[in-house]
Amino acid sequence: MEEPRPEKVAVVEEVRGKFTDADAVVFTEYRGLTVRDLASLRNELRPAGGEYKVYKNTLVRRATNELELDFDETLVGPVALAFVGQKPDGTPGDAVLVAKALKTFARTNPLLVIKGGLLGDQVLDDAGVQALADVAPRDELLARLAGGLAAPLRTFAGLLQAVPQSFAYGLQALIDQGGAPAAPAPSEAPAPAPSEAPAADVTAEAPASTEENETSEALAAGDDTAPAAEEQE
Question: How many CB atoms lie within 10 A of CB 203?
Fold first, then answer.
């Protein structure tokens, strides 16, 4: 059996390494697309971390078989692979954005056909790649997650801030309840002191005091007529 040529072995190793390192791979058929079309597609995929490569099907099949992946039925006709790796700034690529870019390009260039793909360890058919393109991008999902977590955290922080304030109000209420009684309202007149006698009583007792004084003075002067006069009456 003839040994494979070194250049083919190198290509198989390259393809195997890209499958291993990629977060996702999308298989496309590019029959009829021009070199300019392919260059335009590469430029649209690059910002999302997509790398568009063309290899011989036999070499790709050999590499995928070594990885125990079965894409024999997909590798028919002129097939190009979109590998999802790193973005130009070094951040991880986004498989959703790559799938969206391919779907958008195929909408205006019907000659590009999405045939299937690989997301992690999961093999996708063409419908699976189309569904992946409809998912919200990673940054948007992270923003939604952050927003969903921030709302309860803000509420919890507000509750923590309200606890000391409510405690202070409650403590002040207890102090006010156990303190001195409130002063009477201005409309309530103060009750009179028990030692003061009504003015009418003093006036009624005045004649009796005068009569007693006159009787005492008559007895002191030796006037005997005063009792006799009382007896005649």
Answer: 9
User: Would you give the DSSP letter of residue 181?
Assistant: P
Beta carbons of 24 and 98 less than 8 angstroms apart: yes
Instruction: Please write the tens of the pLDDT for every residue from 153-186.
Output: 555 555 555 555 554 555 565 566 655 445 455 5
Cβ neighbours, 10 Å, residue 223: 13
Cα gap 116→151, rounded to integer Å: 39
Would you give the DSSP letter of residue 85? -
116 within a domain of the structure (yes/no) = yes
DSSP of 183-228: PPPTTSPPPPPTTPPPHHHHHHHHHHHHHHHHHHHHHHHT--HHHH
- Residue bearing the bigger pLDDT, 23 or 204: 23
Is position 95 within any domain? Answer: yes
CA angle, corner 62, sides to 60 and 64, nearest 5? 70
- Residue 216 is predicted with a pLDDT of 47
The residue whose two tokens read 């002067």 is: 221
User: For the domain that residue 21 is a member of, what is the CATH number?
Assistant: 3.30.70.1730
